[in-house]
Amino acid sequence: MYTFLNHDRYSIINLKIIGDNVNILDTENLNETEKIIKAAKGEIDADIVLKNAKIINVLSEEIYDADVAIVDGVIAGVAKGYKGREEIDLGGAYVSPSFIDGHVHLESSMLMPSEFAKLVVPSGTTTVIADPHEISNVMGLQGISFMREATKNLPLDVYMMLPSCVPATSLETSGVDLNSYDLALLIDAPWVLGIAEMMNFPGVINCDESVLSKIKLGLSKNKRIDGHSPHLSGKDLNAYAAAGVKSDHECTTPEEAVEKLRLGMYLMVREATGARDLEPLLPVLKSHNTRKCLFVTDDRHPKHLAKHISRMVKKAVKYGVDPIKAIQMASLNTAEYFNLPNLGAIAPGYKADIAVFKDLENFEPLMVFKNGQIVAKDGKMVIDTDSFKAPVLRGSVNIKYLYREDLRIKAVSDTAKVIKVFPNSLITEQTLEKIKSENGFAVSDTNNDILKIAVIERHKATGNIGLGFVKGFGLKSGAIASTVAHDSHNMIVIGTNDEDMYYAAVELVKSQGGKIVVEKGKTLAHLKLPIAGLMSDRPAQEVQEKIKELDNAAKIIGCSIDEPFMSMAFLSLSVIPELKITDKGLIDVNKFEVTNLFV
Questions:
Q1: Strand-pair category, 157-162 with 125-130
Q2: What integer is the mean pLDDT of 29-34?
Q3: C-alpha angle 500/503/508, rounded to 5°?
């Protein structure tokens, strides 16, 4: 499909003959700008030339034949006839700008960023816009600094949005409270692009000064304010947009998406592990202007990372979206939204972040270039990232001494509000159910799939424990537990009996975080997450194997839904309707208040 041709001539001196005169151009004495200009004009050889390529031009929305000349990691020219010290004959393969993930929580992969990069770069993603919201809720500014250090010197550019909601609401206990003064310490950093998803949309539209101060901080620096406003509509949505919020990744219906596009907001089309919105929003992408649409992954488990943004492009094209527009959404649109100049297109002066595709159906890169250098080929990394050493963080699982009796629920009534979960959705429903009781205490009822759920505060040892019931997991025995529980990441446990729930919680304290499946006082599967209780320090393959063990163990004890840990992790997210639970109790998200468990 492609061949490598090395050209040594002109590597130091290029001779340009005009009539009888000989001009000597010493490339070693040229500055970067002069070198790019002269390479663009064809007066000197480029560092690398991609020959015989089909250019996917997201600027003019067309495909045509040309060569791509690269100098010092930048595209110098796109035209036929360029010469390079290294030439790669693509034989008619497609050259596309590599992909940008517009909104991702790296911590949700449970991997160190270096391991994350190993999975996503070979599929064509070379830039991500990360929101370190998860680790910030545990570690605050120290968590953001950790993620910055952990993402340096990778074959993946990681820009960050500063978390806007730490904690997300006052209805939970997080490890830290970050205000606008804290964020002001980092807002001027070149790797910071703005303020991350403003989940507290009630605070925005009700003019909460602490919320608005964060928006004002971002706007004062001409940086973006990302949104998070599920089901917000009408005049309230107008108010949200007028405040300066310019995007949203929570749209699940075409009507919601179109309304936000009409108000000038960017539509972030999300395909996460637990929330997949691309297919429902396809009608919008096929019938409306897509220049304000971009692709994001938000929260993904490792097994869904190997085919990253590329899978979204493939799926969109398969269902009728124009290939150029799909690639545009995965590159140029994202770069322009975040004010990243010279990124996201194949054109002179743009960064040479490039993906090469055999066809426009599978979108599996033959090669991936980062800053003009090949970093992945045929689906595998070709550079070493194993030498990366992560910074050190303190332990983060700190709970008040726990007794089995702490998990008891006194049966005040025989009817309770139960959290009903739905597959592949973050939205839950409140349902009223008859509750089984024993000796005056409400207990799990496996026959009716009503299970006890507990959220245990794990940052400050307050002793807070929120108790309730959940429907939809199908467990017949044992318990599952995790220290990944959005957004404050307190410990969350679901079980059929108090003994196994207690055992699971204690084991997670011992491992300083993780995910676990237990039955009859024994561990069936356990993934340790010692980094902030969110991430593993182990290789991606090992983490993936542990996740498979967790999923299999969950099925053994009767779990009836896919991705149970992802679904469980969002049951404490008190900003997504309808009924959730935190360490402070059962949360009515529509009313934004703690509500009684029993009717």
A1: parallel
A2: 83
A3: 125
